[in-house]
Each structure stands twice: as C-alpha cells, then as structure tokens.
C-alpha cells in the first residue's frame, strides 16, 4: 500500500499533496531557522481559555513542532490519500474540516475531564494537524479491505494495513498527552461518519468555496498522471516481481477488453457484461492457489454478493447495478471491484 512518495503517487489528490508540502515545510523552517517563532504555533490551551487567544487553535493545530510527529503524520497523510481519490477533494476536505472542528471541542472537553477527575493541570497539547489524521483511521478501518500479505512465525498476519497502524502507534507514543488528541480525533471521526448524527450535512465545504479552491490552488498542487509501467523495488524477491508483472499483465488485459466491449456497446447498445472483464484474474488465482484446476469450458457459479459491500460501493457514488455486477465478476472481492470501478 505504501509505495513511493513521488508526485505521481499523489495523482488526483491535490489536497493531500498540499497537506504534505505546506505543513511539513513550515515545521522544518520553524525547527531549523525560526525557533523563536515556535511559541506562536504552540497548542497552548491555557492561553486559549484564560486569554481568549482563539488564533492559537488554528496555528497550534496545523503545524507540528516535533519533527518526529511531522514525519509520521506526513506518511499517514500519504497513505490516506486514497480517500481523496475515492470521494473527491471536496468530500475529503469536508471530512478534514469537520473532524478538525469537532476535535477542537473534544480536546477541550477531555482536558477538562482529566483535570476534574485526576486533578492534573494540562496547559498545552502536542501541536500539529493530528486530530483529523487520527479521525481518518475510522474510515480506514471501516472501508479499506484487509488483504493478507504474509505471516510471521505462521501465526501473526501481516496485511496491507499493518504499516499504517504501526505509524499510528508510533505517532500515539511520541508525546505525553498526545493520547488526548488521538482520542478526540477518533471520536470526531466516528461522529462525522455516523449516519445517525449526520454531521457531514452541516460541517461541509460549500460548493462555491470548493470551486474557488479548485480554480486557484488545485493547479498548483496537482500531479501528473503516473506512467502505466510499474517499477519493482530493488529489495523485492523474485516471487514478488513475478506476481507484480502478472498483475500488470492482467490489468492490461482488462483494459483492452473493457475498451473493446465499450466500443461494441456504443455500436450495438446494451449493458456491459462485467463477467467478461475478470476471467484473467480468476484463472490466474486458480492456477496459483488451487490444485484441482477447472477447464476453460467449465462455468463458475455466480458468487453471492454481500449487501454490506454493495452499500460501500454505493456510498462511493457507484450505481447499485454496477456494484452488483462488479462484485459478482470479481468473486465478491471488494478491493478488485472498487479499483476497477474507480478506473472506469
């Protein structure tokens, strides 16, 4: 899941790219050149409550003063760019804005609760864009499929999500009171994602403002489309290289079949037969992992589709018919179905 930090990895994710560049650059400048200005970016709750310095909520909750927090949060933002690609920049920015505002409230409430319960005075919290980053773990846990990569000692599974959780744990243990920021971020993420509370209908970026930012800032932070060739890491084993080349070949076959069927549909009309798009992947899976291979003339029974997975695809903006057909064609593999629907 975590690949390269180049600009091509942030294709169709200008907001994520901006969050990577601007706060990280400010954090480095404050740490290396302008240490005397760090006091203006400290998340000082005492100054907010007693002196009503509300501007500290903006400055203190945007730029990290600890370079370790800057590094971990940048890696997490890079991994969470998938949500901007799935939902679009406006919906992604609305989530960040809503979770940022909610986490401010929960920060103050949790600090007051700790001071009242344990008689501990907390004057400041770790600074940085940490609340929305921890809030993004909620949709990451709920909507990103878990795919096993390998196992350690035959018992502990390593998945495509393990590295992200390790980064979150590292960020969680970087400061004494950062657990308050993390807890408020998780609570704000749950509140914003809740269908019962429907906070996303209130705390959202207006369409007019979204168009202004798209016209002014998106050209600055937009990235070029990555090339179709996939580079294999130097440390990859021969099996991983072979698997990546096979996946690349399968995707190229899918693209060519989809283009051909689209041309036929434009000429003749009718629905696209999604089941014709996935046989290469299905045959590859059977050839690698099944001892009893089926012949080319045998027809697999249609897979039962989970309504929960259909609902997830519909939340991304796809129609129910396309979601059903894609899940049936991919043998109910949510990750494969999602990637193919997003590319077309």
Question: What does this protein look like?
Answer:
The chain is mainly α and about 350 residues long. Helices cover about 60% and strands about 5% of the residues. Helix 5 packs across helix 6, helix 6 crosses helix 10 and helix 15 packs across helix 16. The longest helix is centred in the C-terminal third of the chain and has 31 residues. The two termini are about 20 Å apart.
Descriptors:
4 strands; two-stranded antiparallel sheet; mainly alpha; 344 residues; two-stranded antiparallel ribbon
Protein topology:
Layout: H1 14-32, E1 43-44, H2 45-51, H3 55-59, H4 67-79, H5 81-87, H6 89-118, E2 124-125, H7 130-135, H8 137-143, E3 148-152, E4 156-159, H9 162-172, H10 178-193, H11 207-216, H12 218-221, H13 238-268, H14 279-289, H15 307-315, H16 320-329, H17 334-343
Helix pairs in contact: 1-4, 4-9, 5-6, 6-10, 15-16, 16-17
- Which spans have pLDDT < 50 for at least 5 consecutive residues? 1-7, 229-239, 278-301
Rg, rounded, reads: 23 Å
Q: Quick check: average pLDDT?
A: 79
State the helix count: 17
From the structure provided, what is the oligomeric state, counting identical versus distinct chains?
A: single chain
Q: What is the strand arrangement across the widest sheet? A: 1-2
Counting DSSP E segments of at least 2 residues, the number of strands comes to: 4
Strand percent estimate: under 5%
Q: How would you sum up the major sheet?
A: 2 strands, antiparallel
Fraction in helix:
55-70%
Q: What is the 3D form?
A: globular
Distance between the termini: 21 Å
SSE class: mainly alpha
């Amino acid at each position: 899941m975590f690949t390269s930090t180049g600009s091509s990895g942030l294709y169709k994710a200008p907001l994520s790219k901006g969050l990577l560049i601007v706060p990280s650059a400010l954090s480095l400048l404050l740490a290396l050149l302008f240490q005397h200005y760090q006091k203006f970016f400290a998340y000082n709750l005492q100054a907010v409550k007693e002196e009503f310095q509300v501007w500290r909520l903006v400055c203190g909750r945007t730029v990290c003063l600890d370079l370790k927090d800057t590094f971990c949060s940048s890696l997490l933002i890079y991994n969470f760019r998938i949500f901007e690609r799935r939902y679009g920049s406006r919906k992604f920015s609305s989530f960040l804005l809503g979770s940022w505002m909610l986490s401010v409230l929960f920060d103050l409430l949790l600090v007051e609760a700790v001071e009242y319960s344990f008689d501990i005075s907390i004057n400041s919290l770790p600074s940085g864009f940490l609340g929305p980053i921890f809030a993004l773990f909620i949709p990451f846990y709920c909507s990103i499929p878990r795919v096993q990569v390998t196992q350690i000692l035959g018992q502990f599974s390593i998945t495509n999500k393990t590295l992200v959780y390790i980064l979150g744990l590292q960020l969680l243990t970087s400061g004494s009171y950062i657990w308050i920021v993390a807890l408020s971020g998780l609570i704000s993420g749950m509140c914003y994602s809740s269908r019962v509370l429907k906070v996303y209908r209130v705390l959202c970026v207006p369409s007019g403002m979204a168009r202004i930012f798209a016209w002014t800032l998106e050209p600055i932070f937009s990235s070029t489309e990555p090339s179709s060739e996939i580079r294999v890491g130097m440390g990859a084993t021969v099996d991983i290289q072979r698997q990546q080349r096979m996946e690349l070949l399968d995707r190229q076959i899918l693209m060519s079949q989809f283009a051909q069927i689209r041309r036929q549909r434009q000429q003749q009309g009718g629905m696209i037969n999604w089941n014709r798009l996935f046989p290469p992947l299905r045959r590859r899976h059977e050839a690698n992992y099944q001892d009893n291979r089926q012949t080319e003339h045998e027809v697999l029974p249609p897979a039962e589709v989970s309504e929960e997975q259909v609902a997830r695809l519909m939340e991304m903006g796809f129609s129910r018919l396309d979601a059903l057909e894609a899940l049936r064609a991919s043998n109910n593999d949510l990750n494969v179905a999602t990637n193919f629907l997003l590319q077309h």
